Every structure is written in C-alpha cells, then in structure tokens.
Sequence to fold (188 residues):
Amino acid sequence: MAFAETFKALSDPVRRQILDLLKEGPMSAGDIGSHFDMTGATISYHLKILKKADLVFESRDKNFIYYQLNTTVLEEIMLWISSLKGGDFDAESK
Amino acid sequence: MAFAETFKALSDPVRRQILDLLKEGPMSAGDIGSHFDMTGATISYHLKILKKADLVFESRDKNFIYYQLNTTVLEEIMLWISSLKGGDFDAESK
DNA sequence: CAAGTATTTAGAACTTTTTCTAAATACTTG
DNA sequence: CAAGTATTTAGAAAAAGTTCTAAATACTTG
Fold:
C-alpha cells in the first residue's frame, strides 16, 4: 500500500528537508547532498525511499541524476488528513 | 520540535487507524484496543505517542480513560504539505 | 578506451521503534 | 477496605530504520 510508504517517507526530517530543497526546482543528487553533513551513500538511501514513495522522480542528464518533486501523492495525504478534521476540505475553506 | 513528532506519530499504520476510529468520537483505551490484535500494553504505547504529538487528548470518566481527536496540529501539517505543492492552499482551491 | 566524476549498492554497526509479558497504578463499588 | 476492572509502566526481545565505508556501476569526454 503506497499510502503507508508515503507517510513513512515523510517521517524522517532529512527527507522532509530534501523535499523542501526541491521546491526550488530539480537538483542533482550531489547538489542535494551538499546541503547535509552526510555521505552521498546516505543521501542516496533517502532519495531511494522518496522515490519509492513517489514523492520524487528522477531524470538523467549528462553525468547527473536530477531529482524533482512529485506532488501528486500529496493530494491523497491531504485528503486523509482533512478527513480526520471531520469532513471535506473544500467545505471547510472559505 | 513538535512538527517532527507529529510526522513520526502519523508514520505508523496502527496509529493512523486509531485516529480513524476516533473520527467517530471519543473512545476508551480498551475499546480502541478491541479493534486490534495486540495487547493493551501495546495500544497504550501507541496512545502515548499520539498524545505526545498532540494528536489526541484524554479525559477520564469512571474507571475509563477516553481518547479524543485533537485536530489543531493537523493544520500545521497541511500547511507544510501544501507549501510543497508550490504555494498556498487557499490560493489553489477554487 | 582510459581516466574522471556522479551516483548507487552491499554489508556491517548502531539506533530507534514496536511488541510482548509481568507487574504496578488507578479507580470503582460492594 | 477488599476485590475487580481499566489502563499504564518497566524491561526485554525482535524488527525496522539510519548511517557509514568500501566497492561497484554508469556515464562523459579527451
């Protein structure tokens, strides 16, 4: 179930920070890594989890792999959260 | 930092299911537990995490402790998620 | 194709999380 | 207050997650 995977992926602060970085646009793995005090291997591990959760996708150019936000899954999460708040999301907003 | 705690709390399927149960209204610890194939001790552990994350609060009556959804923290989460989606939430809805 | 750069994979060490059993606490009521 | 029910706490075992080092893969370009 992909839903569970998404929440797991979002549960780590490093991964959330990666997503925050990607708001600005696509970024290579190395570039992402330079924002953290961790080895590239560890960053790669986090990227893999984000990718499996469909929160990012990659595209290759030259020698680089660029990562990019994929926001489609976030809709689902938002819907679940707003369902907890006792109803439809749009119905609440004004 | 409470933000991280909330995400951690939401990352477990049992805890999300507990929140789903509580949508219907307050429920005693034992009643919640009866929906799962786990010991009461384990349910108590999950409830403690939800409580620390401010996702539920409790009230006592007779010999029971009733748990109840607290949705106020969810706003924050929603805001963060919608910020990923490249902008304000209300601005997107129509 | 060789050398260089970018990234990932494998595997081990360590940390955190989840679950259980057993015991403790808390409250209620006869 | 004793006995019973509800829930939590403590501590241990097991499972899952995070990080590292070292090595492998992948691609680029002289």
